[in-house]
Design brief:
The complex is a heterodimer of chains A (201) and B (288). Chain A contains 10 helices and no strands. Chain A is mostly helical and 201 residues long. The two termini of chain A are 21 Å apart. Chain B has 10 helices and 14 strands. In chain B, the strands form 3 sheets. In chain B, strands 6-7-8-3-9-10 form a 6-stranded mixed beta sheet, sandwiched between helices. In chain B, strands 2-1-4-5 form a 4-stranded antiparallel beta sheet. Chain B has a 4-stranded antiparallel beta sheet with strand order 12-13-11-14, with helices on both faces. In chain B, α6 links the parallel β7 and β8. The chains are: A mainly alpha (201), B alpha/beta (288). At the A-B interface, α1 and α5 of A face α2 and α3 of B.
């Protein structure tokens, strides 16, 4: 299992060199720290799909002594591991460049990453190879564009919910969000496992 | 345990093609060649043996175990070589080894480097720069370095030049020296099989036509030539397929003895090569 997670580093050796300039760009552009944590976390796990969406990779992995369950588990656990590492590196970079950030930025960036992962990972196994990357990219832009107005619209029109959320204390909101995200992540993991087990290569 | 691979009543249906009730056994310690025309179902069968595809019905057992409960243990014991390159083509052989080796408990680094040296493979060049023959050798080096008991190959000789093909066959022969190893490989180049196969499994349109030792095939199948006047409704039954020409007939029979007793010296009987068998079988529906 650990080997499956480690393989992403071997595969992306050269890509990793662009990681630092990639974060550097966002820091230089003075982006919000939470956004920097989000894009930094996305880097490795989503690059990995450039390899994994190929049929040959799936033939290889499934011919090696791994079960399909393990292959999917390595993706979901790997995403968490690489998120943690990316956040650590990003924090260091922010610290070096003397950009202030709070723990809540890490929490929001990490939370959004996990949410995004939970929503998109199953797509990689539903759509045909080749289409997926564009589907995910478009959905990311689409969500980024259309998401905030929808949230604002809902906030204005569903006052019962907004009032309810506003009445909660900060720790409760954070805990609630964490529970919701973790549940979604677990459900997504389960769904992807079922999809993958039914696949033919 | 005599059969390393055992397919029982396996059925798999696709939109335009299906494998029907296939029973296939691969004997331990022998080389079994799996032949059939393009699209006959060779790759599909191999994919089912590798658990890349699940059969709609029937049972696939390797080493007497099934994939539901022993998937990892089974794959530890299999070495695989596929037609195309399944390894990440941007990586060099050393990195591919770093990904593949930890997957196997029995991985043997010394053995791997011995094959790398024997095959003269570069360790630091990307796989995509390899020629077809080198890719095949690289796949083979990886397949052989974890002491696999069963080696499954899908069209390993396709696209190789004659010299490479010969080298590969010699190597396989060498591998069979040490005891219990089993090789199962598909090909449509039948001359490969005359050199190394012990058993021949022949598949056509998703159905297994026969699975016999190479000697049985040689003894049973015959190419018969004779005058058209010899053919009538009864004598025709001795043949699987008959090709008629104005000058006489040429037919394939799967029971040489019966043909001899029916026609005696009135016809010319020759041994049928695997290619003859494949060619004539394709031309007609076999009698049951």
């Amino acid at each position: 299992m650990f080997n499956l997670i480690r393989r992403d580093v071997i595969l992306q050796k050269k890509m990793l060199l662009t990681f630092i300039p990639f974060i550097g760009f966002f820091i230089f552009m003075d982006s919000h720290p939470a956004l920097i944590f989000l894009v930094a976390s996305i880097f490795i796990p989503f690059n990995a799909y450039a390899y994994d969406e190929k049929a040959e990779t799936n033939i290889l992995l499934n011919s090696l002594p791994y079960t399909r369950k393990e292959i999917i588990a390595s993706r979901y656990l790997g995403a968490i591991v690489y998120m943690a590492l990316s956040i650590a590196v990003t924090s260091l970079a922010l610290f070096i460049f003397n950009k202030p950030f709070a723990l809540s930025d890490i929490a929001i960036g990490g939370g959004l990453f996990l949410l995004f992962t939970a929503c998109t990972f199953p797509l990689f196994y539903i759509f045909k190879p080749g289409y997926i990357s564009s589907v995910v990219l478009i959905s990311f832009i689409f969500l980024a564009g259309i998401g905030p107005p929808i949230v604002i619209f809902l906030a204005e029109n569903l006052t019962a919910i907004t009032d309810f959320i506003a009445s909660l204390s900060i720790p409760v909101i954070y805990t609630g969000a964490a529970v919701v995200i973790m549940t979604l992540y677990a459900v997504s993991w389960g769904v992807t496992t079922i999809i993958y087990q039914r696949k033919a290569f | 345990m005599e059969n390393v691979v055992e397919l029982t009543n396996v059925t798999k249906t696709f939109k335009d093609f299906s494998i029907k009730n296939m029973d296939l056994q691969v004997k331990q310690g022998f080389v079994t060649g799996f032949i059939g025309a393009n699209g006959a179902g060779k790759s599909t069968t191999i994919k089912m043996i590798m658990n890349l595809l699940r059969p709609d019905a029937g049972e696939v057992k390797l080493f007497g175990l099934d994939y539901k409960t022993h998937e990892k243990a089974m794959k530890e014991r299999i070495g695989f070589v596929y037609d195309g390159n399944v390894f990440f083509d941007g990586l060099n052989l050393k990195d591919i080894k770093r990904i593949v080796a930890p997957a196997y408990k029995q991985w043997d680094d010394t053995l791997f480097y011995r094959y790398v040296e024997q095959f003269e493979l570069p360790l630091t060049k990307a796989m995509k720069t390899f020629s077809k023959g080198m890719q095949m050798k690289a796949s083979l080096a990886i397949a052989l370095s974890h002491h696999a008991e069963l080696i499954i190959m899908d069209e390993p000789t396709a696209g190789l030049d004659p010299i490479f093909r010969r080298e590969l066959l010699d190597l396989l022969q060498e591998l069979m020296m040490d005891g219990d190893r089993t090789i199962f490989f598909s090909t449509h180049i039948t001359t490969d099989l005359d050199r190394i196969a012990d058993y021949i499994a022949f598949i056509q349109s998703g159905e297994l036509v026969f699975n016999q030792s190479i000697h049985e095939v040689a003894e049973n199948y015959a190419l018969v030539k004779g005058g058209l006047e010899l053919l009538d409704r009864d004598t025709e039954k001795a043949f699987i397929h008959i090709h008629r020409a104005p000058t006489g007939f040429e037919a394939l029979a799967d029971n040489m003895k019966a043909v001899k007793s029916i026609f005696g010296d009135t016809v010319v009987i020759e041994r049928a090569s695997l290619e003859d068998i494949m060619y004539y079988m394709k031309g007609g529906v076999p009698h049951v």
